[in-house]
Design a protein that fits this description.
The protein is an all-alpha fold. It has two domains: 49 residues, no CATH class; 212 residues, MetI-like (MetI-like fold, Orthogonal Bundle). The chain contains nine helices and no strands. Helix 5 packs antiparallel against helix 7. The two termini are 39 Å apart.
């Protein structure tokens, strides 16, 4: 039995090509755009004779990254560890507060306005307080990053828990299911998309919080590397560290997305 592929000019072939293009478009377009921006940047910096101390060319940045790669990897380790610790603390605290807000109206009326108030306070202005309270070590950076990143988890998880289908909850009560069992089997799976949306925002904010903390108090990390390179007017080093930081942020964000896929598949098989 032979397998016949649709001809490229046939309607089926055109539809197949269109589907393939739509499938790869979200990957191809960002790559093409980034490549075009880098080429324009390179041409503009060379043709306009922009000093490298103001704006190094992408080729200079790539060369610097190649030479400083072992050091950048070494500096990325403490940044990644602090970010993961801050994200874990924000996730636990955020989901815990979301559960409290969901099941207790008095506590919701008490806590929610205060959460919104603290969210409106400029976070960078609070960073020195964490240094005063916890010192110049990693605990201050982790606590500050967790503080600025737990709010999206609280809001997203609370909205997810509160948005559970009431008919399904009434069915659980009619079947004499306990509140805890209803939460595990109904509320939590229903809220997973909202929870992981909050996790993705929290991870990006945790990276920002750790970098701010490293600007203020650290002897290692990508934030410290950027600050030191900037003080020496080593602009290519600054850009190289920014690229490394971007790669780290994308990797951590991707880890959250993969975790979401695994958890949702696990609940889907139950």
């Amino acid at each position: 039995m032979s397998l016949e592929l649709p001809a490229a000019g046939s309607p089926r072939g055109v539809l197949a090509i269109g589907r393939s293009v739509r499938r790869v478009r979200p990957i191809i377009l960002p790559i093409v755009t980034l490549t075009a921006v880098l080429l324009l940047w390179q041409l503009a910096a060379v043709r306009l004779h922009i000093p490298s101390v103001l704006l190094p060319t992408p080729s200079d940045i790539a060369q610097e990254m190649w030479h400083a790669l072992p050091l950048l990897v070494d500096q990325a380790v403490p940044t990644a560890l602090d970010t993961l610790l801050a994200f874990a603390a924000a996730a636990v605290l955020g989901i815990g507060l979301a559960i409290v807000i969901t099941y207790s109206r008095p506590l919701r009326d008490t806590l929610y306005p205060n959460l919104v108030f603290f969210q409106l306070v400029p976070k960078v202005a609070l960073a020195p307080l964490f240094v005063i309270w916890l010192g110049y070590g990693s605990p201050a950076r982790v606590a500050f990053a967790a503080f600025i990143s737990f709010f999206p988890v609280v809001i997203s998880a609370a909205l997810g828990f509160a948005g559970t289908d009431p008919a399904v909850l009434r069915l659980c009560r009619s079947l004499t299911a306990s509140e805890w069992r209803s939460f595990l089997l109904v509320r939590f799976p229903f809220a997973l998309p909202a929870i992981f949306s909050g996790f993705k925002v929290a991870m990006t904010m945790a990276v920002v919080g750790v970098i701010i903390g490293e600007f203020i108090s650290s002897q290692a990390g990508l934030g410290h590397y950027i600050l030191r390179a900037g003080s020496r007017l080593e602009t290519a080093d600054v850009f190289a560290a920014l690229v490394a930081l971007s790669v780290l942020g994308v990797a951590l964000y991707g880890a959250v997305a993969l975790a979401e896929l695994g958890v949702r598949r696990a609940y889907g098989r139950r």
